[in-house]
Every structure is written in structure tokens, then in C-alpha cells.
Task: inverse folding
């Protein structure tokens, strides 16, 4: 199954994340299909940006967001 999930980037103790579309069998920071956004929790308030068209396209094609990504998308107003 294809998942929309976070990929950890950045330095030790200073992470930021990229929102990626990846096969659920691949490792967290491993191979991915597409990069569709970013999330930086270290900023105040946390910075979240995503390509809404890409997200809707991938969800329509059957990709499932993880719990964290689903919460972020809901807060950003991309999904219900």
C-alpha cells in the first residue's frame, strides 16, 4: 500500500520533515515515490506547507496518510 508520511531530515535534536508518498514497506528515511511538502515543528508556530493538488491526487489514487500527516492535513484545511 502507498502511504503519505513524514521523512525525517535535519541535524540531531533539530529535525524537520518532508511529506512524502512512499510504499509502506520502505524504511522511514528510505526510498520514496514523490515529495509533496514540508513540516518544521521547531518554528513557532510550526511551519507546514504542502502541494494541495498533489495530496488530493494521491488520496484519490488510494494513498493513505499516516495519523500524524492526516492531523496536519486537517489542521491546514486540505482534507476533512
Result:
Amino acid at each position: 500500500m502507498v502511504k503519505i508520511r513524514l521523512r525525517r531530515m535535519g541535524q540531531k535534536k533539530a529535525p524537520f520533515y518532508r511529506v512524502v508518498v512512499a510504499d509502506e514497506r520502505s524504511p522511514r528515511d528510505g526510498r520514496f515515490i514523490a515529495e509533496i511538502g514540508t513540516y518544521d515543528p521547531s518554528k513557532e508556530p510550526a511551519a507546514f506547507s504542502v502541494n494541495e493538488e498533489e495530496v488530493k491526487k494521491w488520496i484519490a489514487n488510494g494513498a493513505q496518510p499516516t495519523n500524524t500527516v492526516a492531523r496536519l492535513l486537517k489542521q491546514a484545511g486540505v482534507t476533512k
Remarks:
- The mean pLDDT is 94.
- The helical segments are 52-60, 67-76.
- The two ends are 22 Å apart (CA to CA).
- Residues 68 and 76 are 12 Å apart (CA to CA).
